[in-house]
Specification:
6-stranded mixed sheet; binds L-homoserine; 11 helices; 4-stranded antiparallel sheet; single chain
């Protein structure tokens, strides 16, 4: 029997919440597993975004199978091999948590196979260990907005619902930014005043979502820890942010480690905001895709 699971795209950092805040979006990667009692390794087939690249990669390094093995090890059951089908709707390497979906997808598949002994909390611990930071994997497991802190062998995670009126204009330029590279451009030190401002913005972001004071996002999305350093990796980033605001968005930021740019807005403006952002890339001859999304 084939098992099928899905995992959502996630937008990590949410501006000032570097490595701790993340938001689940209603765009999904779907994973299927068919056990094969005779198999001695995982085999894969890929459809969707980046399937051609994924097909060429070493199957032993695929995060889906590695995540499945982690679950079997955790519950002390023998590894069950078989065929994994991955259907990717989320653009990879664009800051929308596609690798987190592979980790979470693998965890969910194996957990279902062994009759779900592991809780979401258990899965988050494994996922955080695999990814090194919890801000994509937490919302990929729990949905909504997550604020997660990874400790040595546990993860403290809180989940809050995202106001229904909040919509997301997501613009994905054809610019690949690996998370590893985007982390290498970050500084070792930031001025104390800038760090203090980040604490206040991140707190304001969370409390404004809880209290539905969405106009605060204009300030609450501003960040000093990564956006100033990473925006040089994304052509015309500042112009796209300005275009989003001029078209009526509350604010905009880099999604995860980029290159995707995400504007927070309401339903009435989301389409115009997305188009205004896209027009900047059009003007400079950069290909892009637009997604109009809501929280998952
Ligand atoms: N918090 C991580 C980073 C997310 O910004 O590097 C990567 O998707």
């Amino acid at each position: 029997t084939t098992i099928r699971v899905q995992a959502p795209a996630t937008s990590a950092n949410c501006g000032p919440g570097f490595d701790c805040l993340g938001l689940a979006l209603n765009l999904y990667n779907v994973f299927e597993f068919t056990p094969d009692g005779k198999a001695t390794s995982f085999t894969y087939s890929f459809t969707g975004y980046g399937a051609d690249i994924l097909e060429k990669e070493d199957p032993k390094k695929n995060l889906i199978g590695i995540a499945m093995e982690q679950v079997f090890a955790k519950v002390q059951e023998p590894i069950q091999y078989g065929h994994i089908k991955s259907d990717t709707l989320i653009p990879p390497s664009r800051g929308l948590g596609s690798s987190s979906t592979a980790i979470v997808g693998g965890l969910l598949l194996a957990n279902e196979l062994v009759k779900t002994p592991l809780s979401k909390e258990d899965l988050l611990i494994i996922a955080n260990r695999m990814e090194g930071h919890p801000d994509n994997v937490a919302p990929a497991i729990y949905g909504n907005l997550c604020c997660a802190t990874g400790l040595k062998d546990r993860v403290l995670n809180t989940v809050i619902p995202v106001p229904e009126s909040l919509h997301f204009a997501v613009v994905v330029p054809e610019v690949l930014v690996s998370t590893e590279y985007a982390r290498s451009v970050l500084p070792n030190h930031v001025p104390f005043k800038e760090a203090v401002q980040n604490v206040s913005h991140a707190s304001l972001f969370v409390t404004s979502l809880i209290t539905n004071q969405l106009t605060n996002l204009e300030v609450a999305l501003e960040d000093n820890l990564h956006v100033p350093y990473r925006k040089t990796l994304i052509p015309h980033c500042d112009k796209v942010f300005s275009a989003a605001k001029a078209a009526g968005a509350y604010g905009a930021t880099i999604s995860g480690s980029g290159s995707t740019l995400i504007a927070y807005t309401d339903k009435a403006h989301v389409q115009t905001v997305a188009e205004a952002m896209g027009q900047i890339f059009d003007f400079h001859g950069i290909e892009y895709k637009i997604y109009i999304l809501e929280a998952d």
